[in-house]
Design goal:
Elements: E1 5-19, H1 26-29, E2 43-45, E3 50-64, E4 70-76, H2 83-97, H3 109-143, H4 156-169, H5 171-211, H6 213-218, H7 227-256
Antiparallel strand pairs: 1-3, 2-3, 3-4
Helix pairs in contact: 2-3, 3-5, 3-7, 5-7
């Protein structure tokens, strides 16, 4: 069977952390049930002072086997207010193409695939690190006991009384913290679904490059001896994604407890 084209398309789920510019504290005034409880919306993290915002990157690539010409369309649906983040994969792609030994090798889809994936994983890792930082702060708030108010020599019985007093005094803080933790749990569950989808995408890209390697070589857009290096790079991407998935699972366990 002679294929008229080698093409692929993907919708890559992304989560990026951006600096919160909410100087009027509007985040605090928005009801969480109407905004942030929906994991399709942003998640505000007050202590790191960042927002985690979700989006997608659409990628379509086609290589005409008759003319050996290729075209790629990349649509980044992220908010244009963070232009530096949006431009990052394109900048990385330009740098990667400079390393090609021949100009026609720049038509190899591996460069487009790998640069977008590595940027995506870096964004995910940064977002989950900030999520973890906020979780540590909330856990600290829930167990905080102002011992200094009673002196450092209070005994076990006094400590238990102090625990009761602090729970009563901090009931509002604990209620707010619990609501925030429920909100974070909803987002974290969604992150798991999106990362699983991303894992499937990486597997499909590995299959694509292995399956069509011979045809890409025949069309002159890939050197015959590059498959091992390319597959190794994709395996490294897969391993990095697995580590991020494990990190998300650890956060899920922590927030459940």
């Amino acid at each position: 069977v002679v294929r008229s084209s080698l093409d692929f398309w993907v919708f890559i789920p992304v989560r990026v952390q951006v600096q919160c510019n909410d100087t009027k504290q509007a985040h605090a005034s928005k009801p969480k049930g109407r905004s942030q409880m929906n994991p399709l919306n942003y998640l505000h993290l007050p202590q790191p002072a960042v927002d985690i915002r979700g989006s997608k990157i659409a990628v379509y690539f086609i290589l005409n086997t008759a003319s050996s010409k290729s075209s790629a369309l990349v649509v980044n649906f992220q908010d244009g207010r963070w232009k530096k983040i949006i431009d990052e994969p394109i900048g990385r792609l330009k740098e990667a193409l400079k390393t090609c030994s021949r100009s026609n090798l720049g038509r190899d889809p591996i460069y487009l695939q790998s640069t977008i994936l590595t940027s995506t994983l870096r964004w995910w890792n940064n977002a989950l690190n900030s999520f973890n930082d906020q979780l540590i702060v909330y856990v600290g708030d829930l167990i905080a006991i102002p011992v200094s108010q009673f002196g450092s020599n209070c005994g076990q019985e006094e400590t238990l009384i102090l625990q009761d007093l602090s729970n009563e005094d901090l009931s509002k803080l604990n209620a707010d913290t619990n609501r925030s933790l429920h909100c974070m749990a909803a987002h974290l569950h969604r992150y798991g679904s999106e990362l699983s989808s991303l894992s499937d995408i990486v597997d499909d890209i590995k299959w694509y490059n292995n399956e069509f390697h011979g045809e890409l070589v025949h069309l002159g857009v890939r050197n015959a001896d590059t498959l091992e290096d390319f597959m190794r790079s994709l395996e490294q991407i897969h391993a990095q994604l697995f580590a991020i998935l494990r990190f998300r699972d650890e956060l899920q366990l922590k927030i459940t407890n």
